[in-house]
Amino acid sequence: MAKVIADVCVKVGTKADGKGRYENVGAKWQKEDGGTFVTIKRTFNPAGVPNPDNKDNIILSIFDKKDNNDQQTVNQEEE
Predict the structure, then answer these.
(1) Is 64 within 8 Å of 4 (Cβ atoms)?
(2) What is the pLDDT of residues 7-65, one digit of tens each?
(3) Which pLDDT belongs to residue 69?
(4) Which of 57, 62, 58 is nearest to 29 (CA)?
(5) C-alpha–C-alpha distance, residues 23 and 6, integer Å
(6) Contact 78, 72 (CB under 8 A)
(7) What pLDDT shows up at residue 79?
(8) For residues 69 and 43, what is the distance between their CA atoms, to the nearest angstrom?
C-alpha cells in the first residue's frame, strides 16, 4: 500500500494579503519500500496557469500533509 504524504499544488494567483493562492493538482505518495511517486489530476491543464513572465515552464509546489489521519492509501497493484 502507498500513502499520500504531500499535496502537489500550483500557484494560481495572489491573495489580498500578498500570500500566494494555490490549487491542489495532485499528490506525492510514499510506497512501503520508501520510494515515492507523484500523481497529477487528469483534468489539470498547465496551459491555464497564469504566466506573467512568459516562461516555458511552471512551478509545482509540494506541501507536506499536516493531518496524518486524512491520508489516502492505494494498493500498489492498482498503480
Answers:
(1) no
(2) 999 999 999 999 999 999 999 999 999 999 999 999 999 999 998 888 889 999 999 98
(3) 52
(4) 62
(5) 13
(6) no
(7) 45
(8) 26
CB within 8 A of 41, min separation 6: which ones? 25, 26
Alpha-carbon distances of 58 from 15, 34, 39, 45, 47, rounded to whole Å: 19, 27, 16, 11, 9
Question: Cα separations (Å) of 19 from 7, 12, 14?
Answer: 18, 11, 6
Give the residue among 43, 36, 44 at the shortest CA–CA distance from 64.
36
Q: Three cell numbers at 4?
A: 499520500
Q: Look up the pTM and report it.
A: 0.76
